[in-house]
Model the fold of this input.
Amino acid sequence: MPTYRAPVDEVLFLLRDVFQWERYANVPGFSDLNAEMLEAVLRQAARLCEDVLQPLNQTGDREGCRRLADGAIATPNGFREAYRAYAEGGWIGLAADQRYGGQGLPYTIAAVMNEFSASANMAFSMYPGLTITALSALLHHGTEAQKAFYGPKMTAGRWSGTMNLTEPHCGTDLGLLRTKAAPLAGGAYAISGQKIFISAGEHDLAENIVHLVLARIEGAPAGTKGLSLFIVPKFVHEDPDLAGRRNAVSCGSIENKMGIHGNSTCVMNFDGAIGFLLGEPNRGLPAMFVMMNEARLGVAVQGLAQSEVAYQNAAAYARTRLQMRALTGAKFPDQPADPLIVQPDVRRNLLEIRAFNEAARALVLWTALRCDVARRVDFDQKARQEAEDHLGLMTPLMKGFLTDRGFDNAVKAQQLFGGHGYIRENGMEQFVRDARIAMIYEGANAVQAIDLVGRKLPMHGGRAIIAFFGEVGAFIAQNELTEAMRPYVAPLREGLGHLQQATMWFMNHAMTKPDNAGAGSYAYMHLFGLVGLGFMWAQIARASLASRARGAVAREAMEARLMTGRFFMERMLPETQFQLTRIMAGGDALMAMPAEYF
Amino acid sequence: MPTYRAPVDEVLFLLRDVFQWERYANVPGFSDLNAEMLEAVLRQAARLCEDVLQPLNQTGDREGCRRLADGAIATPNGFREAYRAYAEGGWIGLAADQRYGGQGLPYTIAAVMNEFSASANMAFSMYPGLTITALSALLHHGTEAQKAFYGPKMTAGRWSGTMNLTEPHCGTDLGLLRTKAAPLAGGAYAISGQKIFISAGEHDLAENIVHLVLARIEGAPAGTKGLSLFIVPKFVHEDPDLAGRRNAVSCGSIENKMGIHGNSTCVMNFDGAIGFLLGEPNRGLPAMFVMMNEARLGVAVQGLAQSEVAYQNAAAYARTRLQMRALTGAKFPDQPADPLIVQPDVRRNLLEIRAFNEAARALVLWTALRCDVARRVDFDQKARQEAEDHLGLMTPLMKGFLTDRGFDNAVKAQQLFGGHGYIRENGMEQFVRDARIAMIYEGANAVQAIDLVGRKLPMHGGRAIIAFFGEVGAFIAQNELTEAMRPYVAPLREGLGHLQQATMWFMNHAMTKPDNAGAGSYAYMHLFGLVGLGFMWAQIARASLASRARGAVAREAMEARLMTGRFFMERMLPETQFQLTRIMAGGDALMAMPAEYF
Done:
């Protein structure tokens, strides 16, 4: 049976020592959380995830969701109570505006809760997760009346939310979508069409479900410029005349999937369902992107989350499973065999996962802090714009890179268990199956890569990437003369050089030949991700050295971080050279092959 | 619904054009298969796999195996008929000695059938696969009476076979095993103990099951030197007095696994079961290794097989799924969108899989041909010894490398389907789940890596790896001045250089410090695997160029090979540099971390 301990101390170290939490005190929401309060909130989050959500992870996978004869969905045993506990703890409205039922705390704390809850029970965490993103879109684009109407119900967990984008013939290519909206008297619309892959589309956790649906108003332009966003409630309370009438939206079937069995993935049928416009007509796609971007960061965190819980269980197994002897002779001659952890390759495997986890968490928190600045700081337009640039650049990068590597790490952790890792009851293969979806949904990772290279890099004349280069370069300049920092700074400089070369190569070769951008986009996403982790490791190392110099109590943890960071620099970051080679190979060879040869 | 076409033309090209089949005419078994016969046999294999096995792949996964109240196992619908067809086609005894019911054909053909059948239905293919390997051990170590007794029954498919090694507390570390053998009057033994993860341990496909069981005779030494191998039949026909009595061996339960649901993975209980010694007492482990090595090559082929079938389905999807437009503008403006195949990153994904598949198949056939030489050539001791060296070196390499990459490729192919790849009915996620086990069983891949580096490299003063270097070096020298070969030879030379540097590094740093070998073993396995594929691509390119020069009919296939080979050289082989860097980082950093820090 797998276990999970939320890495609270690790988060506290990153927020306090690496990112200097106190520097954000004047950002709205932060002042309520001093260092002690911060820790108290995180420990509360950890308790809910460890004690309530995690015990339902395997049972939820085994039971899955059942569609009943009337189209209702029964979630696994215990999910209803867990959802109630989650909502009552205030976690749904954690970062939402206090005027609409939220707690107004930093988004950064919500990102931490994302990690903990997705580690504990990824399938479950998607129910509140989708409610949070739908709420975010409603509070961003809704009228004052809409915000006041939906906010308190959703933050209280009475009503949940969904996103309805995909149709059978279109996922990535939303311009093709066919769901129609016909105007009704009184300003509402009749929504008709079919949506697929709708996570949490139907369930028994809440009184009502608020579907946000992308559809085309009759007569609107073809393509993405004719899409509008609608609120389609399961029960219609918006119009007093309808008095909670069941809307014509229903779950036609649920998908039989590889993983996340505890979450209901629905085919949703809209048969003239009553819908209410959210935001402006034909501006549905940009409105949906508010949700999409937040959801993408949430999915990035799922990659880290599965990697973390898989690591914890693999490390525990490696410390206790007795098998074979150390290569240098028996370490524990009194026992029938040595623990796996004496094997260098077992350590290599574990360190690869761990060196990702700690730096990926730093990347998440760094970006989450910028997200808070981008959304809440109105007293410093420059800081806000820089934060927005950063978010635009990091969102596709983190979605693609963290979920790819998170999945790989779940596979590596499973591998340490040998045959026992393939058996369902040991839980390691569930991490692999669950982690797999994160590479696919909210935009498959290849779409993230082309968004990164084709849109986010060149945007505003490359302002965001130039700022990133500047920030990393300044860090290197500040620290390169410090002897103890050299093992971290020198490899980072080399990795950064590769990223800069790759970026220049695109400037010179992809503007005129977009296939060169496409051909190198995936490699660039991984090259950039590695440099991002390297930058985080260098900062973690600096904070750890400072903490050690201060004689901090958690000396072992600091030593472990310094060693893990060295491992990353020596054995993982050098991959940047290989990714650069791939990028500079260009697209000609790829495009030359006739389609029928494939 | 996934489809599968066995790559017969690809195999024929490799056997005839690349490896020059006719050169083997004087190896026993080959003379019966001239070029036409060879093709006829392969087409027959393809038909069985495409028409009989593949249609049962998804249904077998869905139904799984059921354990009935009496401990019997019901395999999925259709498996019984398929097993009969497989046996009646002569495929079980294909390469077995004709004196004992076999057909005496080359093992190379059996390796091809391994690929086709594992692509079509991996879970099914394990039933005949285990029978074939058990038969091989029986014919290798059995007395004349044992060979005559078991051979015809097993080749006819009436009796099947298993391997019983793993116990709950020991998988890799067989020296720990506890299953006991107590001598009985008359020369037989009473076998007692429990084995786990026994593939095809119980089923309804054959009249009888011949378990080969590793156990310790009472009073035998501890560790691996006290292990003996026993034949434990489900029904005892060996002793006329017992007249087919049900033996005290039974399936206690079956495992609920991530994949290969169509195969029964059993906990086997031996409660004083009658067993007969196979080979010499206390020499069970070396005897078992005859099976293990053959089984490891079979598992290596499973990695390729899942990669191949996943590729075929992904390529078909990419050619037909309409979504988005080409980066350079609409390619098919009359259609609502362009097919996925116009996207450079989709091509990158597909070519990475394909560039592996074609060269991995070459590696399999090259090694299979050497296997035939090693086993059958008694007129040339030098050729035989070289072939044996080659096999020893390539077995762990191919098991580890081909299954790691085969799994990665199944994941990549699934990714092209977006959300549809996560849905069970589309079949892509089954390839991932099934491919996953190949990295684990028959020795987890980390065990293969340390076997390669720690045992096979230094064996006989490095004779095998020196021969490999010599062979690749000679090929480079022969071809480096040919203009058309330069894009293949130059990168191969560079990759070979990295492999040689890594090998030298181990010689200088691992003899005295074994942890340096352990720390670099996994990277070395991948570095070596890449160079192996590179060597195959260079040979494929040479044969394709020659074929094109001759004006061969299959011009498109030759062009596609030359392009795919270029892709491999430009974008995949350069990974060798990164793997070399990892190796040369050594083991100190890994070993320094105290176990409790993990």
Q: What stands out?
A: Residues 459-589 of chain B form one domain. Chain B touches chain A through 96 residues (CB under 8 Å). Chain B has 17 helices and eleven strands. The longest strand of chain B covers residues 265-278.
